[in-house]
Automatic annotation (TrEMBL):
Name used for this protein in its record: Acetolactate synthase small subunit
Name of the gene this protein is made from: ilvN
Complexes and interactors: Dimer of large and small chains.
Enzyme's top EC category: transferase
Catalytic activity: 2 pyruvate + H(+) = (2S)-2-acetolactate + CO2
Listed pathway(s): Amino-acid biosynthesis; L-valine biosynthesis; L-valine from pyruvate: step 1/4; Amino-acid biosynthesis; L-isoleucine biosynthesis; L-isoleucine from 2-oxobutanoate: step 1/4
Pfam name, any one: ALS_ss_C
GO biological process: isoleucine biosynthetic process; L-valine biosynthetic process
UniProt organism field: Aurantimonas aggregata
GO cellular component, one term: cytosol
Length: 190
C-alpha cells in the first residue's frame, strides 16, 4: 500500500515557529542584459518564495545597469540567505534590504510609492460618491464618460489597497498596479 505523497515544501513553512514572517523590500542592481531577470526571479521561485511586487528599469544607461525592486515575505534568516545567494549571481552588483536600511535622520524604512490605474463604472449617487472619494485620496481622473471613471493614484501600497477596497462597492471594474518603487532615506545611495 502506497502512502500519499506529501505536497512540495515551501520556504514559508520551514522556518522556526518563533520567527515571524516579515515583508521585505530588496533593491538589486544588475547588469542590463538578457536573462538576468530570469536568473534573479528563479532564485526566489526555486526556494518556494513568492514575489509580491516586482519592478525593473534601467537606471544608468551609460553603465548598462538596471534596478530590480522586489517585495517578498519571509523569516529574517531566510531573507539573509536569499540576499547572500543573490550577491553571488555574476551580473548582480549590489543587494540592499531597504526595509532594514535607516536614514540619517534616524527614520527607518524606505520611501516607497506605487502607481495604480483604477476603473470604476457607475451612475447616480455611486458615481458622485466615487468622484468625491477619489478627491479625498488625491486620485486624478485620466478618463471618463457618463458611465465610468479611470483614476490614477500614487502612494504607499496600503493607500492604494484602501482606495481599491472603498471603490469595490461603488462599481470597481478593473485595477492595474505598477509594483513598488522604493529608495532608502538619507543623502547616501545604494
Amino acid at each position: 500500500m502506497n502512502s500519499p505523497v506529501p505536497p512540495p515544501a515551501s520556504a514559508y513553512f520551514i522556518t522556526p515557529e518563533k520567527e515571524a514572517i516579515e515583508s521585505r523590500i530588496l533593491a538589486i542592481i544588475v547588469d542590463n542584459e538578457p536573462g538576468v531577470l530570469a536568473r534573479v526571479i528563479g532564485l526566489f521561485s526555486g526556494r518556494g518564495y513568492n514575489i509580491e511586487s516586482l519592478t525593473v528599469s534601467e537606471t544608468e544607461h551609460e553603465k548598462h545597469l538596471s534596478r530590480i525592486t522586489v517585495v517578498t515575505k519571509g523569516a529574517p534568516h531566510v531573507i539573509e540567505q536569499l540576499k547572500s545567494q543573490l550577491d553571488r549571481i555574476v551580473p548582480v552588483h549590489r543587494v540592499v534590504d531597504l526595509t532594514r536600511a535607516a536614514g540619517e535622520d534616524g527614520e527607518s524604512g524606505p520611501v516607497e510609492r506605487e502607481l495604480a490605474i483604477v476603473k470604476v463604472a457607475g451612475q447616480g449617487e455611486k458615481r458622485v460618491e466615487a468622484l468625491r472619494l477619489a478627491d479625498v485620496f488625491r486620485a486624478k481622473v485620466v478618463d471618463s464618460s457618463i458611465e465610468h471613471f479611470v483614476f490614477e493614484l500614487t502612494g504607499r501600497p496600503s493607500k492604494l489597497d484602501k482606495f481599491v477596497a472603498i471603490m469595490a462597492p461603488l462599481g470597481l471594474v478593473e485595477v492595474c498596479r505598477t509594483g513598488v518603487a522604493a529608495l532608502s532615506r538619507g543623502k547616501d545611495g545604494m
